[in-house]
Amino acid sequence: MIAPASDIVVRAEGLVKKFKNFRAVDGLDLTIERGMIYGFLGPNGSGKTTAMRMLTGLLTPTEGTVEVLGLSVPKDAETLKYKIGYMTQTFSLYGDLTVLENLNFMSTIYGLPRKKRQDRIREVMDRYELTDLKDRFAGKMSGGQRQRLALATAVLHEPQLLFLDEPTSAVDPESRRHFWEQLFDLVENGTSIIVTTHFMDEAERCHKIAILEAGQKRADGAPKELMAAMGANVVEIEGPNLREIRRHLLGTAGVMAAAQLGARLRVLVDDDIRDPRSFLKEKPETDGATLIEQVRPNLEDVFVTATGEGRQ
């Protein structure tokens, strides 16, 4: 079913960005619906940040068309910037200004009226636990505190669409979890969000994701749907000599990938093989294994089957 145009926040067709002879983004098609967290998942150099910068109007596409919130990008980029928020990968606020001074400055950049400005600054400082830090210089804050300030600044003008470029790469796991809860609060209040990440657990929190590799989209959809359609079954093996078992299994017909996780070897078996557990149990390489069991796939398995090792 095709979503109505009013429910689409991003539509991109044939998006290409070349830097000399290098295609950082190569033929990207996107349709992102309103009211969701949509993730770009991929390793460094996969084109995530370049794609995001084209969607925000900061980079001009070499080829292709982009519409964001019904506006043509980059032609309408000046109008668009008041409707979106953007949190960069590296902390980009002023370290020699206090929390309050940074928020005041950015509120004037966004053109908020004075009364509205004061109300919104109070709201975001309260929501993101910055009130007691209002006189702290941004350059003296911890990673988690800077993250909260950056998010507060990005949503200060109540954008319809929020872009987050690897927003949790420099914070601890507890701060990451708390940050994601704040993102779902924003979605509940009507904000749509596009986020780039290389963390599998974060990508699994998204409503939908695009897996990128070498500037191309390898897969697109809800994480559970991608797991169900990845074309492989997952079997884990316990026992001695796991490294040797892995070496022998790699390259075997029907085995798409194998990786050790602690005391287990996780093997992706082509789903054309009806009984993957018996298939591996009958291999002489697994003789002596103490356990061979089929397990639930995860998003890392999807990533492997859609990119690199699983596509060779």
From TrEMBL:
**Which is an annotated GO molecular function term of this record?**
ATP binding
Q: Does the record carry ATP-binding as a key word?
A: yes
Entry keyword set: ATP-binding, Nucleotide-binding
* Highest taxon in the source lineage: Bacteria
Q: Does the keyword Nucleotide-binding apply?
A: yes
Which residues belong to any copy of the ABC transporter domain? 10-239
Q: Name one Pfam family in it.
A: ABC_tran
In which family does this protein belong, per the annotation?
Belongs to the ABC transporter superfamily.
The protein in question is named Putative ABC transporter ATP-binding protein YbhF
Q: Which organism is it from?
A: Roseibium album
Q: What is the lineage of its organism?
A: Bacteria, Pseudomonadati, Pseudomonadota, Alphaproteobacteria, Hyphomicrobiales
Name of the coding gene: ybhF_2
